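Reviewer 2 asked us to include a model.

Predict the structure of this chain.
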Amino acid sequence: MIGGSAGSLPPLLDLVAGLPAELPAAVLIVVHRGDHASGQLASILSRSGPLPAGMAEDGDPIRRGRIYVAPPRRHLLTGYGWIQLRNGPRVNRYRPAIDVLFASTVRWAAGRTVSVVLSGVLDDGAVGAALVARAGGRVLVQDPAEAAFAGMPAAALAAAAGAIAAPAKDLAQGVLDQLARVTGATGTAPMHIHDAEADMGMADSDPGYLAEGESRLTRMVCPECGGSLAQVDLPQISYFRCHVGHQYSPQTLSAAQAETAEAKLWGAVAALEEQAAMLRYLRDTTGGGNGNAEEVAGRAATLREHAQRWAAPLPGEPEEPPE
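Predicted model (structure tokens):
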């Protein structure tokens, strides 16, 4: 299994080029890319190495020596030797998400899995890598020092016990070496992770309900739907999910909260400016407004300055790249 985001295409091509035609495993790939780019990825990978690559289709049997690429806007899962595609809640703000692929494969194949995390921003893949390691599988990450964006490989390296960092040129050999080690391996069964649909709706539970594996409810809410977030603890990383099934690793939750806060600030700016415009209209047409239009406009301008400062990156902080 391979996951990547911004800056992951060059190391992915190097990895695929180094795999043998007789690879004794299937390769499943989730890369955060736009819809058009995702549609082209399978053909690019087929031309880059000896293994045939194709867009994954629901119900496909998983065959050795083949590459399956997640299609746009659908989670890629594996179950008992078959491809499953789902339109479930976004995980780490993505669908398809790397964590979903990793977790589903561990449930089916236990420790007989090798996961690879390539360049990317934030930490999608970290929780999935931790589950792979916990089940006895192997985790490889692109060396963060050479990755175009070190966030994802560094997060997976910290979260997964025994994870190995390797330069991009060595990843293919690393996959082969680790495959030899996981044949017949067993490990601890993975903890529950939302991978497709919510297990239950809010109407079926009381407000204090904790699903399997959840350690506690938090005061935070889901940035996407507003539902309460529960915390799930793994040995080296914790993550958060709501009852609907949206799920966040720590760095991704922080980024999503920042986006929500910025959106609320700009919403407040818009509301104040609309109020000021209405007060000016009343003043000019009816003599009403009591002179409050300028005061409200001043508050809007002040809040706009706050919003602009909030939206600006911190010194030394890279802006998140496009998919």
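Residues 252-311 form one domain. Confidence is low (pLDDT under 50) at residues 189-205. We have added this to the supplementary material.
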